[in-house]
TrEMBL record:
Lineage: Bacteria, Bacillati, Bacillota, Clostridia, Lachnospirales
Coiled-coil segments on the chain, per record: none
Top-level division of the source organism's lineage: Bacteria
Protein name: Nuclease-related domain protein
Organism: Robinsoniella peoriensis
Annotated InterPro entries: HRDC_dom_sf, NERD
Residue ranges occupied by any NERD domain in the UniProt entry: 42-155
Pfam families hit by this protein: NERD
Length: 332
């Protein structure tokens, strides 16, 4: 029996804190801030796509935890997704990069045309895996250490949610290739691994205890940690930040109402329209993707940037771009 994805991530708090810096930084600071927010948006888009795929998994019994943060002494690991089944556990790191990526024979990740390597998501996810394996069940719960001692029960997986860009693994070491998968192949891979696993199945009670132990170990996002995101921009401050009491949820609600209104206008004048918002029904996955992209994209200041948001494209931008940008402007 599948349970809904439980989301522990508080990235919206970080986004809101960073957005409040707008208009208070030097040109260099504003540029760096835009890049960071853009990368956050890409990451969230990728995670949302993975979440939608996970909802379609066909397994006997499993739980999904998103954005769990585990801490051991001074080391923290924020894990994109944990899929805890009654036999094995998948530790998933999601990536959505904005360029083609190649992995060489040494396992180094490089953007196409760039000689410099980038942080390896494999190493990053292996750190997450080690952290998960350190979470021990409370002895009072009397659950065996079946998952503590057997590393094969834990499967690290880096999922690339890129659709426009390629990941070249032709020269990558075999053991590394086995840890990387494209989002289109993710569900089949997980279901096949689960099916072939020969491990004893946990009872429903045992699985619930294991999941609860992970949830109990989650570390909430603190003001101190948010300050680390914001503090690095102190060197670029030129004036006090603009105070904005309107949050992401307010922006989302206003955009959703506007999209709904525009769709009704189209329906009333159906003969004069093409394939635009008439197909983006309220509450649909595509509409949610549009809203998510807009709400976490404070750097969008032009129609050119607007077209790059998932599911926006040239038609919506041409017809509604000015109206969308005018709404977003109030929330900078």
């Amino acid at each position: 029996m599948v349970k809904p994805i439980e989301n522990f991530s508080n990235i919206d708090l970080v986004i809101n804190a960073l957005q409040k810096l707008r208009g208070s930084l030097s040109d260099k600071g504003e540029s760096d801030l835009s890049k960071q927010l853009y990368n956050i948006r890409l990451g969230l888009e990728g995670e949302n796509e993975v979440a939608r795929k996970i909802d379609l998994l066909e397994l006997d019994n499993y739980y999904v935890l998103r954005g769990v943060c585990l801490k051991k002494e001074k080391i923290e690991s924020e894990i994109d997704f944990l899929i805890l089944t009654n036999k094995i556990c998948f530790v998933i790191e999601c990536k959505k990069w904005n360029a083609n990526v190649k992995v060489d024979e040494s396992g180094v990740f490089r953007y196409e045309g760039d000689s410099k390597g980038v942080e390896s998501p494999i190493s990053q996810n292996d750190d997450h895996l080690r952290m998960v394996r350190k979470i021990k069940i409370n002895k009072k719960k009397k659950l065996s250490d079946w998952f503590i001692d057997d590393k094969d029960r834990f499967i690290p997986l880096v999922v690339f949610a890129n659709t426009k860009f390629k990941v070249d693994l032709n020269e990558a070491p075999k053991e590394l290739q086995e840890k990387i998968i494209r989002i289109a192949d993710m569900n089949n891979y997980i279901e096949e691994k689960y099916k072939k696993s020969k491990y004893r199945k946990l009872s429903d009670e045992e699985l619930e205890k294991w999941v609860q132990t992970i949830k109990d170990a989650h570390v909430e996002l603190t003001d101190e940690k948010i300050e680390k995101y914001v503090g690095k921009y102190n060197q670029y401050r030129t004036k006090n930040p603009i105070v904005n009491n309107k949050n992401t949820e307010d922006l989302r609600n206003e955009l959703e109402k506007s999209f709904h209104q525009w769709r009704q206008e189209e329906l009333a004048d159906r003969e004069k329209i093409g394939k635009t918002l008439i197909y983006y029904k309220r509450g649909s996955d595509k509409m949610n993707m549009i809203l998510n992209g807009l709400c976490i994209s404070p750097l969008v200041t032009s129609k050119k940037e607007l077209r790059d948001i998932d599911n926006i494209g040239p038609k919506i931008t041409e017809k509604y771009g000015d109206r969308i940008l005018s709404i977003i402007e109030k929330y900078r």
